[in-house]
Structures are given as C-alpha cells and as structure tokens.
Amino acid sequence: MLLLVDDGLADLLHRVVFLLGEAARRRGGDSGDLTYSQMRLLGTLEEIQPATQHQLALALSVSDPAISRALRPLEADGLVQIRVDPEHARRRLVSLTETGRKAFHTNGRPLYDALRDALLAADFPYERYLRDTARLAEILEP
C-alpha cells in the first residue's frame, strides 16, 4: 500500500529519530567510544544473530553499503565477527562476539532504559506510541 505523506508526518518522524539519537548522545557521555547508531546495531544484532549483512540492513532500515561501512569499525574493535556463510559463499554472516555483547549490555541497554524511563516520567504514552508506530510500519511496508 502506497501512502503519500504530505501533512508533515514523515518530517516529524524523522525529527523524532534525530532527537532520540541526540538524547542518547547527551546521556551516553560515559558509554565509551560507541555511538548511538553502533549501540543500536549491536542491540539489533543480538536479537537476530547470526544474520546476513542484508538481513541486518533490512532490520535497521539502512542500505547494504551503509551496513557494510558500519560493521568495519565494529569488526576491527572485536565487537562483531563476520564470516562467509557456509550455505552461500557470496553472503557474509554477522554475529556478536562476547565483547560486543558485553559492550551492548554495559552501554546500550542502560541508555535505552534511561531514555524510556525519562519518557515515562514525562507522562509520555510510551507503550501506546510503540504499538502505534509498529502498526504504522506494518501499513507502510511493501
């Protein structure tokens, strides 16, 4: 189903994502050298691993080249392992290393929890928004 958004919804959603990243950066001062995007990637990977680079790109709503670029420093830092898929030599499988899992749980998970708690403390209808946003994504999926 193709929906044309001309009332500002797309811009507002984009702004919310940007502001969440900014809030994460402000709160994540002690989160080591990991960016919000890197923590999001590690958290997503924990849920779906092992995953092909393409599956990870789809889960994060980014392009395949973007995921490839994003994985390079994580692999160099020993946070993810990338190996050839034994079932298809052209695909690469990505998994979290133990170091990557620890980095996410030490830095990313508390950051996500802090953001959620801050929104709830501000009387934001977090659970309803989460449900509504998931439904919106379902409607917009091809």
Give an overview of the whole structure.
With 142 residues, this protein is mainly alpha-helical. It is built from 6 helices and 3 strands. The chain has helices at residues 9-27, 36-48, 53-60, 64-76, 98-121, 126-140; strands spanning 51-52, 80-85, 88-96. A hairpin with a 2-residue loop joins strand 2 (80-85) and strand 3. The longest helix has 24 residues, at 98-121. The N and C termini lie close together (6 Å).
Write the layout of secondary structure elements.
Layout: H1 9-27, H2 36-48, E1 51-52, H3 53-60, H4 64-76, E2 80-85, E3 88-96, H5 98-121, H6 126-140
Give me some keywords for this one.
142 residues, mainly alpha, three-stranded antiparallel β-sheet, 3 strands
Quick rundown:
The protein is about 65% helix and about 10% strand.
Largest sheet, spatial ordering of strands: 1-3-2
**How large is the count of helical segments?**
6
User: What series of H and E elements makes up the topology?
Assistant: HHEHHEEHH
The SS-based structural class is: mainly alpha
Count of strand segments: 3
Q: Percentage of helical residues?
A: 55-70%
Overall geometric form: globular
- Mean pLDDT comes to 85
pLDDT < 50 stretches: none
Rg to the nearest angstrom? 17 Å
How far apart lie the N and C ends?
A: 6 Å
- Main pleated sheet: 3 strands, antiparallel
Strand content: 5-15%
Oligomeric state: single chain
